[in-house]
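Q: Given only this backbone (268 positions), what sequence would you predict?
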């Protein structure tokens, strides 16, 4: 918290849930799924500021390849959401958003031991392994994850009670790729939460330039959401609600942390 105040100028609550996603910025790693959840949560808290919710600080970090327009656009969206949320007195005692600049090993050494929740939300079948999930686990973070990469081994070790799993299975993803049948527009048209958060990308909510985040908008709708962000959205929201409820029981959460640390030796 002290580092973030000194380097980012943002005051965060050290007692809030530190929900952390640090990794290369890439569509398959789905930072934009994280962001759509934050926007949706922002809507809920504005409409119901007294709702039962444990304060959470969303911390993101990572670098984008120089020629990867959507990844750079994602970083811009993170900072735009942070500016909006962190300066809204209706919600800023409940949620804060931080984009850590210049993510690197020395910064990871600060972030990973501070984590409560480890975000491992890549599209199933896309992550070869993943190693940050192992480092988070070893430092006592609880993982929210798709069954992809090393998250599968983590789940096998700690069992379902000590990890929060959501989203499509590998077989479901491969079936969509092989046989088609997926329509992002259908989901958009039939889920008002999704419609509202997607529309926010191009209605001036997060930028005076309404086309600023058109690249992300188009990837989700015009190009039919190759990485199934909208398909997993509802499952991810429910998983996040479960995390918030679990954290409210401090004794049980610390037991979960202990179980994760105790079972991390397999990755040595």
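A: Predicted residues:
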């Amino acid at each position: 918290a002290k580092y973030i105040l000194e380097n980012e100028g943002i005051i965060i609550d050290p007692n809030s849930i530190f929900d952390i996603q640090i990794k290369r910025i890439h569509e398959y790693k789905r930072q934009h799924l994280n962001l759509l959840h934050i926007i949706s949560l922002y809507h809920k808290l504005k409409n119901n500021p007294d709702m039962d919710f444990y304060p959470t600080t969303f911390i993101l970090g990572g670098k984008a390849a120089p020629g990867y327009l959507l990844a750079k656009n994602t970083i811009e969206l993170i900072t735009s959401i942070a500016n909006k949320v962190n300066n809204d007195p209706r919600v800023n005692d409940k949620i804060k958003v931080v984009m850590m600049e210049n993510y690197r090993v020395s910064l990871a050494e600060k972030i990973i031991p501070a984590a409560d929740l480890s975000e491992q939300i890549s599209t199933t079948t896309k992550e070869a392994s993943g190693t940050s999930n192992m480092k988070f686990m070893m430092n006592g973070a609880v993982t929210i994850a798709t069954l992809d990469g090393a998250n599968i081994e983590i789940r096998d070790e700690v069992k379902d009670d000590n990890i929060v799993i959501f989203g499509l299975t590998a077989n479901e993803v491969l079936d969509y790729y092989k046989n088609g049948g997926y329509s992002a527009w259908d989901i958009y048209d039939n889920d008002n939460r999704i419609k509202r958060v997607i529309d926010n990308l191009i209605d001036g909510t997060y930028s005076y330039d309404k086309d600023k985040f058109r690249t992300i908008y188009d990837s989700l709708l015009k190009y039919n959401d190759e990485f199934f962000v909208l398909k997993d959205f509802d499952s991810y929201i429910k998983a996040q609600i479960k995390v918030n409820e679990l954290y409210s029981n401090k004794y049980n959460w610390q037991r979960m942390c202990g179980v994760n640390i105790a079972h991390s030796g397999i990755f040595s």
